[in-house]
Amino acid sequence: MQPTSAQIGEPLEGHEDSVRSVTFSPDGTRIVSGSDDKTIRLRNQHESVQGIVPICSVHN
Fold it and tell me: In angstroms, rounded to a whole number, what is the distance separating the alpha carbons of residues 10 and 31?
């Protein structure tokens, strides 16, 4: 099978800035995305947002 960059579904929506990381849960039922808007979003397999977690950081 050849790798492809073809879109296979609708784009995920909700972040207010660039998405930097996306991963699937081991059972394939959830998607987690992290963004430059300093949030992590948890979606179920039907793409509805289940939770939004703000990311806190400390800079010296």
Answer: 13
